[in-house]
Specification:
The complex is a heterodimer. By secondary structure, chain A is of the alpha/beta class. Chain A has helices at residues 46-65, 68-84, 86-97, 101-119, 125-129, 162-173, 188-198, 214-223, 237-248, and strands at residues 27-31, 37-42, 131-133, 139-147, 150-154, 177-181, 207-210, 229-231, 253-255, 277-285. Helix content of chain A is 41%, strand content 18%. In chain A, the strands form 3 sheets. A 5-stranded parallel sheet of chain A has the order 7-6-5-8-9, with helices on both faces. In chain A, strands 3-4-10 form a 3-stranded antiparallel sheet. In chain A, helix 2 packs antiparallel against helix 4 (101-119), helix 3 packs antiparallel against helix 7 and helix 4 packs parallel to helix 6. The radius of gyration of chain A is 20 Å and the shape is globular. Chain B is of the alpha/beta class. Chain B is built from 15 helices and 20 strands. Chain B has helices at residues 64-82, 87-103, 105-116, 120-141, 169-182, 197-208, 223-231, 244-254, 279-291, 311-322, 343-358, 390-393, 409-417, 432-441, 474-478; strands at residues 28-29, 31-33, 36-38, 45-49, 54-59, 155-156, 159-163, 186-190, 216-218, 237-241, 260-264, 270-273, 303-307, 362-364, 380-383, 400-406, 424-428, 446-449, 468-469, 482-483. In chain B, helix 5 links the parallel strand 7 (159-163) and strand 8. The chains are: A alpha/beta, B alpha/beta. The interface between A and B is large, with 36 and 46 residues.
Chain lengths: 288, 487
Amino acid sequence: MSDRLAVRKTYKLYLGGAFPRSESGRTYEVTDAKGHFLANAARASRKDARDAVVAARGAVATWSGATAYNRGQVLYRVAEVMEGRAAQIAEEVAAGEGLSATRARAAVDAAIDRWVWYAGWTDKLAAVLGSSNPVAGPYFGFSLPEPTGVVAVLAPQRSSLLGLVSVLGPVLAGGNTAVVVTSKERPLPAVTLGEVLATSDVPGGVVNLLTGDAAEIGPWLAEHADVDGIDLAGASGPLAMELERSAAGTVKRVLRAPAEEPDWTADPGLARMTPFLETKSVWHPMGW
Amino acid sequence: MTAIPARPALFEYAPAAESRSIVALRPRYGLFVDGEFTEGTGTPLKTLNPATEEVLAEVSTGSDADVDRAVRAARRAFTRVWGPMRPADRGKYLFRIARLLQERAREFAVLETLDNGKPIRESRDVDVPLAAAHFFYHAGWADKLVHAGLGPAPRPLGVAGQVIPWNFPLLMLAWKIAPALATGNTVVLKPAETTPLTALLFAEVCQQADLPPGVVNIVTGAGDTGRAVVAHPDVDKVAFTGSTEVGQSIARAVAGTHKRLTLELGGKAANIVFDDAPIDQAVEGIVRGIFFNQGHVCCAGSRLLVQESVHDEVVASLQRRIGTLRVGDPLDKNTDLGAVNSHSQLARIRELVAVGEAEGATCWQPEGELPGRGYWFKPTVFTDVSPAHRIARDEVFGPVLSVLTFRTPDEAVAKANNTTYGLSAGVWSEKGSRILSITSKLRAGVVWANTFNELDPTSPFGGYKQSGYGREGGRQGLAAYLQGDNQ
């Protein structure tokens, strides 16, 4: 054991490409699976959530306007940077989820592979979900998937990295920007993912990570008029129902959560991408 | 209110009334449950001809108990007959229905015009042919669903509860029932309270086609009946077309349940005319965009955005063209604008037009008399409209056009997208690259270029933002009625 005094880290939010503390000044204690103190994390407030929505809205034009190829490249770069930080993230997963080093590393590997999988989707969605429409008239009709816009993501509470990546990846691959409320009790892998995103080529505001309580922040996001969709993965029971009801007031796209947190290692298919994609049908004239 | 002097009519038209003798109206109609017409236990309603205020028939309405009976019939049919049926046979039933709609097209068109008030020209040339086309299109899908890109074994959801509006009664029925049946679901459909008759005539077609009892159930009634359909615990899927306000309440009602939901709600579409557009063609499109079906169209082009340099030319040409529109007897084959569907809708149109004048926009209507009885509103154009005016923000759902201007393409896009709605939009330009660039920036589910209000069963239809979610039509529309790997 070295007698060097460790440099401890202050865990902050990732918002608009920067790392602010919560404007509320609040923090909360994060412990490992056995209850030992790990860190103080920022406890995001309503105001932080609203700031995050502003940042996410500001990034929509850049991110949705980038070419699908470019988005794929940027997302793949995230996986590359994650791979370099895999050991650190695995330690955080092991501590938070109470996993052995081997199983934690397997979860990190699966998360990186999941990210790569979604990175590869950006320039295939139009071919798979779009169509040429043989309308009965002198028009070239076609339909294309387009991003919904700003999506609030309540990340899974148990699976702190693979679960997080499994809900964030599809939102980004479709061209949306995201405001994520992380797992409340296991936020550290998300904090590190924020650092990964900041040091990749993801434009600021595309992903905003709020550590804190989905039950506290979720309602503000569910009713926010500038949020277009909400993924309820991290909410359950009465909270999920309350948020879905609240989201109805602005006709948000809602991705419901199953009663039990699913096995995130399963093949995800398109099921988490399609809820946050709109279909636009265009009628283009034909003639001499 | 200013009016330009009426020009002498270009042509005088002798009345050319379509005969209503093809329709055999019954004095009373019941519900259609489990393959049979039956009395509902709710308070009966009277359905009117909005062009004359004549009572067409008394229609019984569905109580909670009637809705429950219909849902149980639909469940039985799903479990025992329609679900297990060979997909090709389901398709054949839909082909039969499509053909019967074509064979009885004139009857449907006349009945639709009587009950709704829309011009016979539209019910005959648009509503009924498109309804038949919708069944024809979806009939072909029934045995090809594994190729629809929704996973290797897509499965039906079960019983679909469907609530439809009064603006395109038969066509909306087709948009709801055809995809539901093609994908193996059974349905309980509630038509609008002011326009139940073509849905009940459709029930006869189901009998004629020997469709197994319970596959299609029609429960007439008003809001309470609709709420009962949506709230029934054994309904697996809810599909609604109507106002955003009701859509929001339906989304609240299904929150926390297993029910899947698609919503096709209101709109406030921008119709953007650039200075290089073919102006005469654009004027026809503007007229079609806002006055088709008296403007009772969720995708109506109710906000005209004209490039400033051609504003005066477009407005003058538009007013000249509107002066030639014939408003009157919906059964007359020359009629361009029929009756407003109901007294309450007429009141809403009048209210919003009064607000438009009070807020300082300039109101223009053509000269001419409206019929003395019935519900009528003249085609109306507001100029000097600012984006903050309610007539530029609220859905009027009537023949009322708001004209705004823009200078640059960026401004056009910003103004077009400055709405909580996002159902449709139009772009007029002779430049293909501009059309594609603008359409890619508009936040709307359907964008027409150099045309407007075109519909086709192969083209997915539905909204962005508060115009709803889910699509109807096309391969994408099937997803609303199936569960598969990608759902």
